[in-house]
Amino acid sequence: MSQFSEELIGRSGYLNEGFADVYDRYRPSPPRGVLDVLCFVAGVEQPKLVVDLGCGTGLSTRAWAARAEKVIGVEPNPRMIERARAATEQSNVRYVEAYAAETGLPGGQAELVTAWQAFHWMEPQPVLAEAARLLRDGGVFAACDYDVPPFVEPEVDTAFAALMQARRDARQRLSIPAGATNWPKDRHLEQIRASGRFRYSRELVAHGWRETDAERVIGLAESIGGHQALLNERAPEVGDAFARLRETANRVLRDRACLELRCYRLRIGIK
Ligand SMILES: C[S@@+](CC[C@H](N)C(=O)[O-])C[C@H]1O[C@@H](n2cnc3c(N)ncnc32)[C@H](O)[C@@H]1O
Prior knowledge:
Number of strands: 7
Number of helices: 12
Strand content: 15-25%
CATH topology: Rossmann fold
Strand order of the largest sheet: 3-2-1-4-5-7-6
Largest sheet: 7 strands, mixed
CATH superfamily: Vaccinia Virus protein VP39
Bound molecules: S-adenosylmethionine
Order of helices and strands: HHHEHEHEEHEHHHEHHHE
CATH class: Alpha Beta
Radius of gyration: 18 Å
Structural class: alpha/beta
Number of domains: 1
Distance between the termini: 24 Å
CATH architecture: 3-Layer(aba) Sandwich
């Protein structure tokens, strides 16, 4: 199991020098409204414990600091977790370097186990077994993903979507599978149901806003990873699509701050 994840992380670009900084700078934190939805589903105002699987640089973990009594982020990539630790001041947040299926944490204590933009990286069934073990009765597992690109401006979004398509095409042509190739996000709910470990499951939708500008749009695209491997000679069309996004964002948005609307899909299972 960890060999699969190790290989995936190895070819993701997420271990590259400096990547964790770009990621932490340009990726969004979960908005408060989405945390409210998760607390509502779990039937708690202030969770005693949240476990965040695949926490990366801790954006999705730190978001709980003011809301939960205790939060634990779980992440196997040493560079990402190093960045998470460096970026976290809150004393009720800690990190464990581990794979999601083998966290080593005590069972039956969490009210929420989350995987933000991360469940498609993981072999679902062993991770769901671990999530169910970590949860108390009535606790909630939530695979939380946002649509990419977010809505910013039609011309910019079109250029962003073209970059994403160029990446998918290049991956296919070069046989470089992404995490979601094996475990697509739109099948998360099926996986939750198939596990037989949750008495109720469904998909919820929510949204969040944040301020953005040309630099942040371009940074978000850079934070998607895998570029380096794809760009070097083997897929110049990805570099071209990236250059078009840069040009479009700079021309359309200039220095203008604007809003980004993000659409979240929450696939939840209640134990
Ligand atoms: C796209 S990042 C999401 C990070 C963070 N949750 C966020 O919202 O920004 C996905 C993370 O999942 C981690 N990951 C991949 N396979 C994993 C596994 N088997 N167990 C735990 N984490 C894993 C990756 O190393 C990566 O940091």
